[in-house]
Amino acid sequence: MIVAIGSDHAGYPLKAHIVEAMTAGGIEITDFGSYTPEPVDFPDVARLVCDAVREGRAFRGIMVCGTGVGAAIAANKIPGIRSAVGHDSYSAVQCVEHDDVNVLCIGAQIVGPTLAAAYVTAFLGAEFSTEPHFRRRVEKLHALERTAAMEWLASEDGLKKS
């Protein structure tokens, strides 16, 4: 299993602990930065992590920023990505089982290294439910994504940028 991971400068120290815990558990990590505590914009790193997930180069993605919120917002802007903030094991599992989330975001200013590693382990071990109502709901999420993209392309702004 290959997992893509990335952080901004606020998440950099916690990301190092998560990487250490995951590699000790036999999980291969592709680290997209940040590699230092110097300021970096989380949307740039989120794009790299999410592209690896979308392109099948990674099973799932992990993003770490100050609160996890900014990283989740950035990741959710990328077609094919469903991201959630996971600051407890229950949410880290449920977001996969019910919503087929493929990128977990964690706030380094919210949780410590031991809990973060536990949440990532829970997230990576979860599987999307085969229950029809969860599958139907996730298909509706895909439809929303497609509709929003088509509406944007048809808009004046979309036409100018195309």
Automatic annotation (TrEMBL):
Q: Tell me the InterPro entries matching this sequence.
A: RpiB (IPR004785), RpiB_LacA_LacB (IPR003500), RpiB_LacA_LacB_sf (IPR036569), SPI_LacAB/RpiB (IPR051812)
Lineage: superkingdom: Bacteria
Q: Which GO terms describe its molecular function?
A: intramolecular oxidoreductase activity, interconverting aldoses and ketoses
Keywords attached to this entry: Isomerase
GO BP terms: namely: carbohydrate metabolic process
Query: What is the name attached to this protein's record?
Result: Ribose 5-phosphate isomerase B
Q: Where does this protein come from, organism-wise?
A: Paenibacillus herberti
Please name the catalytic residues of this protein: C65 (proton acceptor), H98 (proton donor)
Keyword check for Protein transport: no
Q: Which NCBIfam families match?
A: PRK05571.1, rpiB, rpiB_lacA_lacB
Give the protein family: Belongs to the LacAB/RpiB family.
**Name of the gene encoding the protein in the UniProt record:** rpiB
Q: Which Gene3D superfamilies match?
A: Sugar-phosphate isomerase, RpiB/LacA/LacB
